[in-house]
Amino acid sequence: FKAIDAIRRRARFDASLGELADRTETAAGPAELAEEAGVEDDRLRLIFTCCHPALPAEAQTALTLREVCGLTTEEIASAFLVSPSTLAQRIVRAKSKIRDAKIPYHIPSREDLPDRLESVLQVIYLVFNEGYAASSGDSVTRADLSGEAIRLGRLLVELLPEGEALGLLAMMLLHESRRTARTDANGEIVLLDDQDRSLWDRELIAEGQALVQ
């Protein structure tokens, strides 16, 4: 079931990636757009594209998590502390606004990236949060999501080495360093005081510390 779920998530992301890529290519070629914005990674580029300032902040985040990052409506609703039906309505309204207002899916210029940074940071954080403490499934954590959030965080720091981006990446690295020690052989949570610190990833800890020094 986990494998099937992973395949479905990948299929949803691939479908969204293709659709959004088609829309962004109408004004210019993908190479020209990527060079202009300075965002080389497909998923990070689409996150910036979907975090359009014409949409309410929560709608930007919810829509991006669903369409680009592949999280389910239930997982996103859990992060926002709302019911799945409420969250679904937000996404529908955001899509309707995009359609009715003819909001273009253009990759923002490099000068416009800082204006979207807050929403992008929230998206990456919520992806990591779902990986750190999964809201559904048999596993307490999801390494695929936290790993992807850290990958995006590193790319974001290279692109925009702002304090908020550095702080988010450092936080994710420090939490991720304890992954192996956070659960026991039965998959149960091990409290911080009881964790085997020899299992902590020292390289991740050092990387996180270097970011905030």
- The chain-level mean pLDDT equals 84
Number of helices: 10
How many beta-strand runs? 0
N/C terminus separation:
43 Å
- Poorly predicted regions: 20-36
What percentage of the residues does DSSP assign to strands (E)? Answer: under 5%
Overall body shape:
flat
| Helix share bin | 55-70%
Largest sheet: none
Which H/E pattern describes the elements?
Answer: HHHHHHHHHH
Radius of gyration, CA atoms, in whole angstroms: 18 Å
Structure classification: mainly alpha
Structural overview:
The chain has 213 residues and is an all-alpha fold. It is built from 10 helices and no strands. It has helices at residues 2-24, 30-37, 42-50, 57-67, 73-80, 84-100, 113-132, 143-159, 163-176, 202-212. Helix 7 (113-132) packs antiparallel against helix 8. The longest helix is centred in the first third of the chain and has 23 residues, at 2-24. It starts with a helix and ends with a helix. The model is unreliable at 20-36 (pLDDT under 50).
